[in-house]
Amino acid sequence: MSTPATDRPSVLFVCVHNAGRSQMAAAFLAHLAGDFVEVRSAGSAPADTVNPSVVRAMREVGIDISAETPKILTADAVRASDVVITMGCGDTCPVFPGRTYLDWTLDDPAGQGVDDVRPIRDEIEDRVRCLLADLGVEPRA
User: Fold this and answer.
1) Which is catalytic among the residues 11, 14, 15, 132?
2) Biggest CA pair distance of the chain
């Protein structure tokens, strides 16, 4: 599951606004995998900023995403990824042969307070840990 230019797998997380779920997933994967996985995130209709409740919830587990900004989904980002994980973006994600596509059904943290974001964050962390196992990458402590 690695791109020709590198021997490490590449994962793209996609949600509509790239302001919540995909940002948390990308941050967890980068945090747990370090340099062993290339991580991207994007949105089909990106927001202006990352959801503040998401930033607070991630800070509670020691991951600071306050400097992240939502990015637009491009065909190049999909093409450059081995695994594409969608989170409620529907059919807006381009499909290319040779990629693994997964759809994670998760509640949307948009408009929710940090108390409601925590269970979403924790479910995303669990899924990212399973993804690491599937990729054969040992999570960092």
Assistant:
1) 15
2) 42
One digit per residue, pLDDT tens: the chain, 141 residues? 444 445 899 999 999 899 999 999 999 999 999 999 999 999 989 999 999 999 999 999 999 999 999 999 999 999 999 999 999 766 566 677 788 999 999 999 999 999 999 999 999 999 999 999 999 999 987
Catalytic residue among 30, 42, 93, 135: 93
Question: φ, ψ for residue 84 (rounded to 5)?
Answer: -120, 120
> How far, in Å, CA of 125 to CA of 110, rounded?
18
CB 29 within 8 A of CB 140: no
Q: Is 15 a catalytic residue?
A: yes
Is residue 130 part of the annotated active site? The answer reads no
Active site residue 89: yes
Single out the catalytic residue among 37, 84, 89, 114: 89
